[in-house]
Amino acid sequence: MGSAASATPPAELAISLAQRNGWRSLEIEAQLWRDVSIHFSNDPMSPTAFDVLAEHLADEGLGHYVPVALILRARERDRIEGRDAADVMIDRALNAVRDIDDPYVRAFVYRLAGMLLRQHDQFTTAITLYEEARSVAEHAGYLSQLARSLGAIGSAYVADQRPKEGLTELLRALELYEQLEINDWYVAEANENIAILHDLGHDQAQGVAYAMKAIELFVAAGDLGEAARAENVLGGLYERCGELDLALKAYISSDARFRQLKGRHRLSSLPLANAANILVLRKQFGEALRMLDEALDRAITNGSAHGQAQANAYLGAFFDIDESPLYDPRRSEEHLLRAYQIERERNHTSPLILEHLAKYYEHHEDFERALRYTKELYDFRERIRDETAQRRITQLEARRRIEEAHKLAEIEHLRNVELKAAQTQLVESEKMASLGQLTAGIAHEINNPVTFIASSIAPLRRDLREYESLNGQGPEAQELRKEILELLNGIETGARRTSEIVKSLRVFSRLDEGSIKKSDLVAGIDSTLTLLNSRIRGHVELVKEIDPIEPVECRPGQINQVFMNILSNALDALEHTPNPKITISVTSPDSTHVQVRFADNGPGVPTHLLNRLFEPFFTTKDVGKGTGLGLSISYGIIERHFGRIDVSNDGGAVFTITLPTHQPQITDHTSPTTL
To answer: CA spacing 20 to 30 A to 419: which of 10, 240, 478, 613?
Structure first.
């Protein structure tokens, strides 16, 4: 799709040559590929003739191409005439392709048929067809078709509210696209769905870049409909980030793109309704109602159940606003229940509709119904909330920034390995995620000395030439010599600083492979502080109280991960604290143990939550800002080192780690216990 329009002129030339030489079968085949290029370039001014071509292809002995013409005719009918007309052509194409041996044609037809059925919310059938396409492409070795099939499967899973399965397939598709250096329509679709996954995971800020990339690629492919859809996704990301001006701008731009389309698009009502909802928040009630009515009419005309449900939901919320002159609770309830019924009929759950229904009945003191819809909303969110998927989204971000992270196994693999391997993998995954989040700061730390070194080369070269021209004699030469030494000292300092940062990265990110070795804990703390320097310097006062200690037997990479988790949490807690301060102390309470204490002057941990702090997935951070695994993993690491980790409040949070200097010999009867 990405270069579809550029294929039209060569196809036209092939048609002309075939006509001049009387090559009828070649002429028909060239006409097919010309119309394919026109179809995927979304040029409304250039007609296609897939119906006629299907007959001509059969007459000329090119029957293996007939399903291609039929499935593309189905897509055109879906755009112009609607779902019922498209379904007839889809059935014809699928019946025709069953007798075709050409693997490329089979994969192509199965995938496009799946796309059409997915648009009609027939997710199970669509995924079955996508799987057929994947199987054919895999056996034939068609990697580009395989990547597109994987991306299509992932997109269907996302649309069917199954984020974990969707992410699995989308990651595989993106890896193949990168290997094949493909950057087309299908890559745009994968980026759009990654943006949607970020939205589901309450990480809208990360999703914005993916949505923008999707829009850029869809526009380059000439697909205004999908560009409009991606821009509506972008608007939703902005809206949930609180950027209402940017959201409204994106929705209006999306609606404008939809209006440029020649045919009907099933999602064209969505940005209009979303824009109206923002106007409601701004109390522009008259214009908002006009837009919502138009959105509902458009959704009905387009046969879009999704669009009808959304417009009815927004209308329901609109008529239940007390301060609105159009307040009408009866109409509000009718619209909300209609939206709910539409979603039930399509076997779909909309948190938006459930939330509005719960608020409506609570507003009108029908607490039994309010509780019913609130419980349904809670159950849905618990089902859709997938910590594994969110973890792997974080891994994707880390992998794009840190080269070492590509060695990590997918979290899904944890289900099939032994517990010890699972624990190790989770530690390394958390470590790479931490590095991914620190990348911007680390890049800045490295950039400063590197920039100084680069900017010093030209004046150093100039000074050396002038020094040589003076033969090193005279006052001017002495001044030049002094300036050259200053530049060299600066370059040496910059190189040393860069080396320290790279060394800290290497120390922190290495895989321990289960080996116990004597380690300098203070050096580990210093390496961790180096990586966090961009968040500490100039913002937080750092006090170190270090007593001489002997090396400690441990897995140093894992212990460094504990230091990173605790320090990162402390920095998060100090964001709104005046005169923030962290105190790190290292002592030897006796001859066989060392103790590391991290204390901050932040708000501390609420007393009633102290006992839950090390539970898996428990977090006091806002949704999307923490997974709740960092301290749980840290607790497990320290326990496996036969140590203990305690938390208390003393003018802020205090974490105390106690470790034995020597690890006991493990026997069948030995187990890590707290001291």
So the answer is: 613
